[in-house]
Amino acid sequence: MLMEAAVTYEKGKFEFDEIELDEPKADEVLVKIVASGCCHTDLGGRDQMAPWPIPGVLGHEGSGIVEKVGDMVQGIKPGDHVVISYQHCGQCANCLGGHPARCERWFPLNFLGRLTDGTTRLHTKDGKDLSVFFGQSSFAQYAVANQNQVAVVDPEVDLRLLGPLGCGFLTGFGTVINVFKAGFGDTIAVYGAGGVGLAAIMAARIAGCRKIIAVGRQQAKLDVALEVGATDIVNTRETDPVEAVRAITGGEGTTFALDTTGVASVIKQAINASSIYATICTVAMSPDTLNVEIEQELMGPGRTIMGSTEGDAVAKTFIPLMVDYYKQGRFPFDKLCEFYDWKDIDQAFQDSLDGKVVKPILVM
Predict the structure, then answer these.
(1) Which domains does the chain have, with CATH numbers?
(2) Angle at 17 between CA 15 and CA 20, to 5 degrees
């Protein structure tokens, strides 16, 4: 079928064009895209900071309505409201063990432009293949995705809001719940108050953390952090974050630290503002190299320093839970979102880079 998409034919640019989308195969679904979140990971592909092959179609936080399902699809039917998340093979030990975000083929499946069978469903009108992104390429009117990465959601909730639950909000929320397993009495510092960080702050409040500290450079976003669950904020333009976080925690440092920036100097601050036996996790793509003092920062304090993707969440089951918390008013991620017409994609990303909006969402 022919459809319109925001195609990246060359580095740094989106171009609206009419392209061809193949029919879904036996284990796939065809989704009419209603909206798609804008994420910095998309910019990594567009600007070739990540090795995603162009030309192709980006977008990996799609929400929409199912139009067609393959013969082998179970639990999804035409008319269902869905969120599309990351691609995974479903067959490796990690996938079968309940950790598909640690799929052995996670990177090639999500970043190297092909689906699980090694082909693509996207083509130019003259038949040339176009790369897919995260197995969905949701900067388009339609997407074909594997059933494993499609979560059915409550049709009573505004579907336009839900796309970011497939990646950005999933990453922040899931890291607190699944990776840290934070709870009563714990303290946490979140470095970076963008969409991922603010979702983590909301999750920490749900989990019952005693101290929830937002650390960032933009006061407006820190003010939002206080509104959605932070107990304390630290503006790094005004104070030393290590000293400030330790003062807030009575000198102990935090039990958990989540870095959403990928900046090595920030991760060092997170380490040094953490307690004995703390866990420090980064979730950001970054070219930086982190130097750790083994005895003073790692071995002596018994800290765990780690990375995580997609909040170690099984998206098909975890996303509906997040939607339910939203319905209860306990996960108000709508406060972070601004809608844009999808033809204003360049403005949406620029506003995000400029800090004017936390999470822009393109509405088709």
Answers:
(1) 2-166+332-363 (3.90.180.10), 172-308 (3.40.50.720)
(2) 135
